[in-house]
Amino acid sequence: MMIAKVIVDIPVKETDRPFDYKIPLEFESFIQPGMRVLVPFGPMKRLGFILSIETQSEIKNLKSISQVIDPTPVLTKELLSLGKWLSTETLCPRLFAYSAMLPAVLKGNYKKMVRINDQVSLAREFPTLLDTLLNKPEMEWTELLKKEPEQSDSLNAAMKKGFISIIQWIKNDRRTYKKIRYIATSLSKDELIDVTSKLDKRSLKQKQVLEYFINQEPHLKVEISDILKRLNVGRSTLKQLVKKGFLDETTEEVYRDPYADKEIERTTSLSLTTAQKNALAPIQESIRSQSHEVFLCHGVTGSGKTEIYLQAIEKILNMGKEAIVLVPEIALTPQMVHRFKGRFGDEVAVLHSGLSQGEKYDEWRKIHEGAVHVVVGARSAIFAPFKNLGLIIIDEEHETSYKQEEQPRYHARDVAIFRGKYHQCPVVLGSATPSLESYARAKKGVYHLIQLLERVNQRSLPEVQLVDMREELRSNNHSMFSKQLFERLEDRLEKKEQSVLFLNRRGYSTFVMCRDCGYVVQCPHCDISLTYHRKQGMLKCHYCGHQEPYPSQCPECTSHHLRYFGTGTQRVEEELTKVLPEARVIRMDVDTTQRKGSHEKLLKAFGEGKADILLGTQMIAKGLDFPKVTLVGVLAADAMLHLPDFRSSEKTFQLLTQVSGRAGRDQLPGEVIIQSYSTEHYSIIHASYHDYHSFYDQEMQMRYRHHYPPFYYLALITLSHPQVTKVVDIAEKIAGHLKKGLSSDAQILGPTSSAIPRIKDRYRYQCMVKYKREPNLLALLKRIQEHYPTGTKNDDLKITIDLNPFIMM
Ligand code: ADP
Ligand code: ZN
Ligand code: ZN
């Protein structure tokens, strides 16, 4: 007998282990680990992943697998073991780990169906309901409730009595393939002429279609949608011709191609500078000897890192192997994609959040079916199901978006290293501003450090000028532009050069304050101020979605002197048009880039010189390479310096360095103006000199003093519950367990209330563990997780455990 060990799609803790199922004879010949199956679980049919196939089981009376969904495994052997590792390291159910590796369309998508258990009783007590159910045997539960709401009482009653039950059924993924329909003919030209002449005189349209084929040599198949448009005929015309046997219809399955209509110019390798050659050599050596090593490529902006990646990938392709390139979501601009597609064409799949689910699925399938050998994508592309990986690159490795903030709470860097070890291939981390963790590891020799400290062809890094905005106020300038920045903007307008204005929005919202009593309007459900959205005249909470109209008076003191503070891109744009009316401005923020493709359109327009100033948020900080940009202005450099996060200095330094790197990338020299209210802060000063090493030294001292990473590891346990007493009580118990279970070297901070103490009416408390080596920690945390069941109902306790957290709030 053959047995399959299956992880079943029921996200409850008790089921986070494989279950045994019998493999029916008819599946034996092809069933493999990594395939998805449908299995009975209680009264339901659920999706499952086969972990392994065995010959015996300790359990008697095994149920059988009902259906095998995939013809080939969707998870490779490597991914199966990666999932197991992820689930241990991040304390998440294995099911979540596997689901994270697959495109959304392959995840369980269930229908709830009504099943009749006892027709006789149903006929006696609920005859109308029985009628409905018999009329439509495949009735979906929600559909039934919607169509016949008056039946919901009898439904519930019949269910309580056991006359019917609700079974779950997985929707199959029939509609996930894109098909193209073609029309063709197997008749020869003469035959076509013959049948055309015999057509009824009134069948003009049919004649037209046949004539099209007569004039076409040879008789290729044509897309139906194409011919309908071209000849302006209807679908029925074609159908009649098919019926008569003159034409044949065929269907072919195709990959959706999100880049199909883009002209991408092909490029060839540049001849490398000496610095680039020296950087590439050790990576090539690791590729050649097929040995795993992690490289940290610290290269200033514009030092030619991307060209090094491209040439390393070329080697990999020549060896018949595959490469993964991760870039941050916001850097997945068309510019970046074009550089990879331009070099490797159809060998490249692209994965990012801007694609539809179908497009994402097709990009994934190209990888799975071996149709491409390179993937360029955001975080989750690290799970690309390649079987013969030769290289993994993580660009901008310091980006916090590489950490997933929901289960599995993994960092793409750790997954990359797991896969690099498995395939014995190099992992290259690249950045102009490496994370402190990575740089410290490189200094210790754990990673191989590669440095590129100059821009390609000795182009100089732009000169940076710091402007103290407090001084501006003192000299009576109340505008959001300092005198210096305004003069430079005018200057660029005259010279017809371009400028980029960057506004750091994070932690810098437009809140509404009472000028009499100082009250700031807060969300009634979350302890956080509401953000003013001017267009709709509404105040919105960015955590729970609560919204209310702009108040006419202060809720605290009834004063009418309310005003909003903070600067949004809209306000900057308005002020720009006031002070520089002749400037053409493109604004890029979440509001102007909501529609698909708008991001690309705006950038293209700017690249073609259709605007003088590009004004935007974080999304313009990275990856842009516009030769005519000679001025970068940063409006509020310190906006995130004061967030309750030990990485706030590091993030400020990184962001300022990235933004400055947008200036002077070509022949024209660049200039940067940074406006700030904290010009004395070391992260801002070092950024203004492009001085990573001094920043690193100073920040490391701070981390050392306060016991933060990379000197200590962190684990953050966050609890939430609608009752504050309950949260405090459990948080204290957990802190007690931690103190008892860990060594005296570990520090347990808290419980304290979180930086945002309440979200959606739930109170939030947290404990933080700082530690160096605690072999028991994972097991202890797992016991805590199991001891406090966290349900899905709103009034249940929720516990999240985050190892190496990036969000402290
Ligand atoms: P980074 O990724 O480090 O920011 P890029 O790879 O984008 O740097 O290179 C910056 C600019 O220099 C790009 O416009 C690129 O085309 C150009 N460049 C890179 N390497 C070379 C080279 N060897 N010769 C000429 N130009 C180069
Ligand atoms: Zn007031
Ligand atoms: Zn809220």
Automatic annotation (TrEMBL):
Cofactor(s) listed in the protein's UniProt record: Zn(2+)
EC category name: isomerase
Key words of the record: ATP-binding, DNA replication, DNA-binding, Helicase, Hydrolase, Isomerase, Metal-binding, Nucleotide-binding, Primosome, Zinc
Pfam short name (any one): Helicase_C
Domain Helicase ATP-binding stretches: 286-452
EC number: 5.6.2.4
SUPFAM superfamilies xref list: P-loop containing nucleoside triphosphate hydrolases
Residues binding Zn(2+) 1: 514, 517, 554, 557
Record keyword Disulfide bond present: no
Source domain of life: Bacteria
Catalytic activity: Couples ATP hydrolysis with the unwinding of duplex DNA by translocating in the 3'-5' direction; ATP + H2O = ADP + phosphate + H(+)
Cofactor binding, note field: Binds 2 zinc ions per subunit.
InterPro entries: DEAD/DEAH_box_helicase_dom (IPR011545), Helicase_ATP-bd (IPR014001), Helicase_C-like (IPR001650), P-loop_NTPase (IPR027417), PriA (IPR005259), PriA_3primeBD (IPR041222), PriA_3primeBD_sf (IPR042115), PriA_C (IPR041236)
Domain Helicase C-terminal positions: 549-720
PROSITE patterns: HELICASE_ATP_BIND_1, HELICASE_CTER
Annotated binding of Zn(2+) 2, by residue: 523, 526, 541, 544
GO molecular function, one term: hydrolase activity
Subunit details: Component of the replication restart primosome.
UniProt cross-references to NCBIfam families, sorted A to Z: priA, PRK05580.1-3
Name of the molecule in the record: Replication restart protein PriA
Gene: priA
